[in-house]
Amino acid sequence: MDKLALLYEGKAKKIYKTERENILLMEYKDSLTAFNAQKKGEFEGKGALNCRISTLIFKLLAANGVAHHWIETRDDKFMYVHQTRIIPLEVVVRNTMAGSLAKKLGVEEGRELSRPIVEFYYKDDALNDPFVSDEQITAMGWAEEKDLAELKKRALKINEVLFKAFAAVDLKLVDFKIEFGFDKNNQIILADEISPDCMRIWDRETGKKLDKDRFRRDLGSVDEAYLEVYKRLNEGVAR
């Protein structure tokens, strides 16, 4: 594995330079964090599970015409990705009231939204990733209006594909966070990861949480929940 200099280390991943131009190596870590790393933990094999889950989802999205940075998964927790210039926004898609939105609006978790909604949050841990409006984004120069329109369009397309695929294996896609960047051709592509770390996934029948909320809320059995998501997706999406 042509892993060279460490370029970046975040809460859940490490990014390495490789010998190939514009291609990076991403390593998924076993660490668990919540509330902008104010709460920390880990479980053995978590990085490998998230790498496998993300790989399944990237393949599914590619089959449905969604451009992304994934190239190849090399082993349990490493994948090659296209280098991107990350747009400093977290793009959140919500199908169901949960988490911060439910709390902010004083609504019980689980209420279905009349349609999926897309929200933007400025990527800055020191500021707790604040919600930002389109006008704030363009005024600060983080993205142009045409880029925001494209991000919304792609986020909703990703939601459409994943919602259907998850439902087919009795998983409810409540909400998720994704990130985008510009590739070497200055085209917007999906970047980062898609895993239970950045999604809310509930069992469709029981409502059991199968994502990082099990860690955030001290529900226990985090490893079992992530493994359940992988098994269902591997049996369904990869079929």
Summary of the model, kept short:
The protein is α+β, with helices and mostly antiparallel strands and 239 residues long.
List keywords for this structure.
single chain, 239 residues, alpha+beta, Phosphorylase Kinase, domain 1, D-amino Acid Aminotransferase, Chain A, domain 1, 2 domains, seven-stranded antiparallel beta sheet, five-stranded antiparallel beta sheet, 6 helices, 33% strand, globular
Describe this structure in words.
The chain has about 240 residues and is α+β, with helices and mostly antiparallel strands. The protein folds into two domains: about 5-80, Phosphorylase Kinase, domain 1 (2-Layer Sandwich), CATH 3.30.200; about 85-220, ATP-grasp fold, B domain (D-amino Acid Aminotransferase, Chain A, domain 1, 2-Layer Sandwich), CATH 3.30.470. Helices cover about 30% and strands about 35% of the residues. It has six helices and 14 strands. The strands form three sheets. Strands 8, 9, 10, 11, 12, 13 and 14 form a seven-stranded antiparallel beta sheet that branches. Strands 1-2-3-7-6 form a five-stranded antiparallel beta sheet. A two-stranded antiparallel sheet has the order 4-5. The radius of gyration is 17 Å and the shape is globular. It starts with 5 loop residues before the first strand and ends with a helix. About 35% of the residues are buried. The model has no long low-confidence stretch (mean pLDDT about 95).
